[in-house]
Amino acid sequence: MTKSKQLITIKGTRDGLTLNIDDSCSFGTVLNELERVLSTEYMDEDAPMITVTIHLGNRYLHKEQEQELRDLIRSKHKLVVQAIESNVLLKEDALTWKNESELKVITKMVRSGQVVEIVGDVLLIGDINPGGKLVATGNIFVLGSLRGIAHAGTHGNRQAVIAASYMQPTQLRIADHISRSPDYESTGVYMECGFIDEKEEKIVIDRLQILTQKRPDLNGFERRILNG
Amino acid sequence: MGEAIVITSGKGGVGKTTTTANLGTALALNDKKVCLMDTDIGLRNLDVVMGLENRIIYDIIDVAQERCKLKQALIRDKRFDYLYLLPAAQTSDKTDLTPEAMVKMISELKQEFDYILIDCPAGIEQGYQNAVAGADKAIVVTTPEKSSVRDADRIIGLLEKEDIEPAKLVINRIRNHMMKNGDMLDIDEIVQILSIELLGIIADDDEVIKASNHGEPVAFQPNTKASIAYRNISRRILGESVPLQSFEDEKGMFSKVKKFFGMRS
User: Fold this and answer.
1) What distance in Å separates the CA atoms of residue A114 and residue A57, rounded to the nearest whole number?
2) Does residue B144 register a pLDDT over 50?
């Protein structure tokens, strides 16, 4: 190699190998270079599998290219790719990411027969009436009466919570859990929240204040949203 | 230029037709030019409640399909010079009427009348679409029962999508003793759930049934509970502010009335 700068640097850590790949050369060059570098390494047959973390720098790889990279490294003895990290993000992915972590504010009465679906967290200023449904992939906060159905964490987020100023829901759903109102006439409760209790494996309803202990992440989450 | 008000409820049997007939009568008593429009094709009965069944020659479908002129189909009321009825057809199907035809008819009627009250059929299908098509305002009728409040909520949601003013609420068939015992939904509770403006409340009154069987809307009678309620609602439509009726008149106990108002205010 006549080039003064190495395209691939390898660092060994306690957690395995870290490959830093230069981001200014072509992908083809990277593959060739990788092939060359890794073949020269001597591997002990009895050694355990070594995990590899790849840092791409400011390079973006397509799904196929990523697979190609994984395949190449896997073809070497005892190496397996654990993670591929890149500083670059597709605009599309960034928007989805933003969408999913953003708090959407909606002012609306969700009436019987209406379904409102949201990606991310939602703050509803208004009521959800019986027969109405609010669905979100994140958390649900209702500044009003929740009398209908609220479904939080639809994509399987069991950490999601549902909070309401007035809680008298027909059903609460979080991820794959469903709880329904009791069969006897019951009045609602003020300022409460529903979340999945890990021990009991079901949705429980408790005072809003309990969230500080049960879901401390909410704080950081909210802060992240506020700071963009 | 008049205004068209659709009277709807979603659920059947809550008193849309009775309300239409009585509000029409009450508005006519206030010297307004009123036209009642029955859009419940195939199940017409506004004409029966008004006692005008025997005068029907043409109906709304005849007008919509241009078999006759609008004026020919209008039936003048026995009691008022300026209360008219455009009856529904009994033999046709709901699909024979289109929203476009409704808009055309209503804009024609608006030239002539101050108020056009449209009696909407139950349900949220084509019949509802037709009834709502040409309306400027909407009145939602409900009773203090969970099922009819639920349907009213659904209808209000649908009305919000239409290009009309926010709907107003009429609560019909209130039985005071049941409401007091908590066996019926409370007025406040209903208004809170539906969160629209309350236009009026009407007590469950035997006179209403008696009157409509005689083909004479109850709003005519001078002092039954229901007739006063309907006349109050018509005054509110005309823009007056009229306090809500008290239902405590039976016993005539002054203290109770006071207590009732005290609780409300």
Assistant:
1) 47
2) yes
Domain regions of chain A by residue span: 8-85, 99-226
Q: Average of pLDDT values for A78-87?
A: 83
The sign one gets for the Cα dihedral A114, A115, A120, A123 is: positive
Average confidence (pLDDT) over B167-172? 96
Residue B127 makes CB contacts below 8 A (sequence gap 6+) with: B39, B40, B41, B94, B120, B121
pLDDT digits (tens, 9 = 90+) for A2-51: 455 778 888 888 878 888 888 888 888 888 888 888 776 565 666 677 88
pLDDT digits (tens, 9 = 90+) for B222-235: 889 999 999 999 99
Residue B168 tokens, joined: 């107003």
Cβ contact B157–A111 (<8 Å): yes
Q: What is the pLDDT of residues A122-163, one digit of tens each?
A: 999 999 999 999 999 999 999 999 999 999 999 999 999 999
The class of domain A99-226 in CATH terms is mainly beta
Report the number of distinct structural domains present in chain B. Answer: 1
Indicate which of A107, A129, A133, A147 best probes the interface with B, i.e. most B CBs within 10 Å of its own CB: A129
The parent domain of residue B240 ranges over: 3-264
Average pLDDT of chain B to the nearest whole number: 90
DSSP A129-182: -TT-EEEESS-EEEEEEE-SEEEE-TTT-TT--EEEEEE--SEEEETTEEEE--
What confidence score (pLDDT) does residue B65 get? 93
The answer to whether the Cβ–Cβ distance between B157 and A109 falls below 8 Å is: yes
**C-alpha pair distances (Å), A214 with each of A91, A101, A178, A192, B264:** 34, 20, 19, 13, 42
Which residues in A lie closer than 8 A to residue B156 (C-beta atoms)? 111
Of the candidates A114, A145, A147, which has its C-beta nearest B157's C-beta? A114
* A76: its two tokens: 């070497």
- Tell me which CATH code domain A8-85 carries: 3.30.750
**B10-41 residues labelled b (16+ CB within 10 A) or e (exposed):** bbeebbbbbbbbbbbbbbbbeebbbbbbbbbb
Q: What ipTM did this prediction achieve?
A: 0.79
Task: Identify the CATH number of the domain in which residue B212 sits.
Answer: 3.40.50.300
Average pLDDT over residues B8-31: 94
Q: Are strands B75-76 and B3-8 parallel, antiparallel or unpaired?
A: unpaired
